[in-house]
Amino acid sequence: MRAPAFLALDLVLVVVFAAIGRRSHAEEGALLAVLGTAWPFLVGALVGWGVAIAARLSPTTLRGGLPIWLCTVAVGMLLRAVTGAGTAFSFVLVATTALALFLLLPRLVAQRSGRRADA
């Protein structure tokens, strides 16, 4: 996959993360409500992409995905705190874990499948 496809996938998966979270708390699932929950993490993901590119890391690799994941969580939580949204410790743990799976697993799969194709 190329970088634009990975960027789109990352943003979609962040929205999916927000939708799953809203659903698990029996909150409305309307698109605007989901985007209202997702926006801090979407901003964080874009910051992470900027950090990865500035550090000359390929954002499509597992190594390049690390700052994307960390910024998604850190910036997302910071923006939620600043806007008065919840940042309970349990939410931080769940978000950190879920976003690691959503943002790092596709890169791991792509790297592994790329190695197999080369072999």
Automatic annotation (TrEMBL):
<protein>
    <submittedName>
        <fullName>DUF3054 domain-containing protein</fullName>
    </submittedName>
</protein>
<feature type="transmembrane region" description="Helical">
    <location>
        <begin position="66"/>
        <end position="82"/>
    </location>
</feature>
<keyword id="KW-0812">Transmembrane</keyword>
<feature type="transmembrane region" description="Helical">
    <location>
        <begin position="34"/>
        <end position="54"/>
    </location>
</feature>
<dbReference type="InterPro" id="IPR021414">
    <property type="entry name" value="DUF3054"/>
</dbReference>
<keyword id="KW-0472">Membrane</keyword>
<feature type="transmembrane region" description="Helical">
    <location>
        <begin position="88"/>
        <end position="106"/>
    </location>
</feature>
<dbReference type="Pfam" id="PF11255">
    <property type="entry name" value="DUF3054"/>
</dbReference>
<keyword id="KW-1133">Transmembrane helix</keyword>
